[in-house]
Amino acid sequence: MSSSPKTFDSEFIAEVQRESEQNLALCYQCGNCTAGCPVSFAYDYPVNQIMRLVQAGRKQEALSSHAIWLCASCETCTTRCPNDIDVARIMDVLRHMARREDIVSEKAVGAFWKAFLESVEKHGRVFELGLMANYVSKTGRMFTDVDLAPMALRKGKLGLRAHDIKKLAEIRGIFDRYREQKQ
């Protein structure tokens, strides 16, 4: 069901609650989540307003938000919530929902996610150098953090080849099941 930004979508609320295992009605907009968030300066909507958008069933606005993609998942919001709502988990669920619907408001973050998952699917774990090359090819950001590469190589944090892992087929099976479920 496609909805306009101002449309109330009760199915959306139920889906967020089911996937996050959180009771959205417990949020009374105290603002503690926003007050503690170290990344809120970069958000289009503060955390408490994201929560309010979800409570109001405003799916399109919530999933189109830049905030869900910029969230650092530090869980400060969760720690500060007086009603023990796992706000970080809700932000994570919103990001997954947006990704499933191909709504990615932060293109560089979306490109990183995609490159990361492609690396895990191909190698069974992250191949850092391959991840960086894939990310650069998706974004065109050739010289982003290039100054860090020599130090990462010296410290062995950036392998020149992928690591072999056992049961790679099982990991690829996870991705196959996800694609089947998405259809």
Automatic annotation (TrEMBL):
Keyword field: 4Fe-4S, Iron, Iron-sulfur, Metal-binding, Oxidoreductase
PROSITE patterns the UniProt entry points to: 4FE4S_FER_1 (PS00198), 4FE4S_FER_2 (PS51379)
The keyword NADP appears for this protein: no
Lineage: Bacteria, Pseudomonadati, Thermodesulfobacteriota, Desulfovibrionia, Desulfovibrionales
Record flagged with keyword Iron-sulfur: yes
Domain 4Fe-4S ferredoxin-type positions: 18-48
GO MF, one annotated term: 4 iron, 4 sulfur cluster binding
UniProt protein name: Succinate dehydrogenase/fumarate reductase iron-sulfur subunit
Gene Ontology CC terms, in alphabetical order: plasma membrane
